[in-house]
Amino acid sequence: MNVLIVVVIGFIIIALFDAIGSILSRTLNFNYAWLLLGSIIIYGLIGIYAYKYGNTIIGVSSSLLAGIFD
Fold first, then answer.
1. For 42, how many CA atoms within 13 A lie in the half-sphere containing its CB?
2. pTM, whole model, 2 decimals?
3. pLDDT at 1 over 90
């Protein structure tokens, strides 16, 4: 698996998580900030998988890109 594929899949997961979380927070009337932990876990997983297929710099950079995307 290529690092680029890991990052793109991560972007898709982040976008879906944010969209679903936003809809649920409005519908169920809870604070959207409670979903921060889920986002941090996703960033970490992106970094771990990017590190697995690349190196340390690529892993950290991939997590950084995911955070900027979010």
1. 23
2. 0.86
3. no
